[in-house]
Amino acid sequence: MPNVALAVTDGMLQFELALACEVFGADMTGVAEPWYRFSVCGPSAVRVGRFRLAPDHGLDRLPHADTVIVPGWADVDQDPPAELIEAVRAAHEAGARVASLCTGAFVLAAAGLLDGRRATTHWAHAKEMAERHPRVTVDPDVLYVDNGSVLTSAGKAAAMDLCLHLVRLDHGSSVANTLARRLVVPPHRDGGQAQFVTAPVPAPDNHPLAELFPWVIRRLDQPLTVEDLARQAGMSSRNLGRHFRSVTGTTPLQWLLTQRIRHAQELLETTDDTVDSIAAATGMGTATTLRRHFQRTVGVPPDTYRRTFRSRTRPGAYDDGRHHRRKS
Q1: pLDDT in tens, 215-239
Q2: What is the pLDDT of residues 256-300, one digit of tens each?
Q3: DSSP state of 203
Q4: pTM (predicted TM-score)
Q5: Taking a C-beta distance cutoff of 8 angstroms, is the pair 316, 33 a contact?
Q6: Where are the beta strands (DSSP E) in 136-175?
Q7: Total Cβ atoms within 10 A of residue 210
Q8: Are the beta carbons of 138 and 120 closer than 8 angstroms?
Q9: How far is residue 243 CA from its own chain's centroid?
Q10: CA dihedral (17, 22, 27, 32) positive or negative
């Protein structure tokens, strides 16, 4: 069972902290077993906004975790506590995967974990991070950045995107989607999606693409083009592109490819269909095309993905190819 530790001290943001608890501390009995062994690690008593928090363990427990989550740091003008910085650094040196939510990236930067790496944080604090930590390549225009053993997210909702991304890496797309449905949040937003778009995502029934999205999802097996989508939406291709950028932060073709890959992931996890059949069912045409896009997007070939995540149905299975150490 993988260990996930939430690193807390005074001065953390309560939203991101609670979000991590909801994701990694969830009861997923019957959906994904084993789930995470989740714990909160910090000093004897922690002040988080209006709340007092009693951690399960001290910060010295972090090096024993497989994954360490650092929630948002409330006052970015104030240096994080030295004991937190040292504990996070020690966890990473021990082999833990370390992820920051929102301004928690300032803690990772202070620990030196982001030196020479690309990272993100809340767009309002990206400039300050770049100035204070010149060895970090700060990207203010994405939802999250995955460097393998070190991950960072933008603010608030993007923190949820990163947490679900971690669940997807560990347990597969189907489990991550099930958890997202329980939390009533979008199941997947790509990390490279724009952090800030010109308009917020509208309610499902009052924006120009509301009827188009489900229409496309029902036809992923078909060779759809931008012109097909524009025709169905009753607008020009250029106007469609503007609406897609406003609503999703990406282009129609990139959004369509993301839906095809997501559907392929679920079919690989939940069926015995051949890669050729899945290529047809997802509109990829051929197994060669599916393998090329899948490898580029997911990072592994479809067959490897299937072997990894189909094994999650067996009790005690936990190995996504990224974690090789065992904890005592």
Answers
A1: 999 999 999 999 999 999 999 999 9
A2: 998 899 899 889 988 999 999 999 999 999 999 999 999 888 878
A3: P
A4: 0.70
A5: no
A6: 137-138, 144-146, 150-153
A7: 14
A8: yes
A9: 24
A10: negative
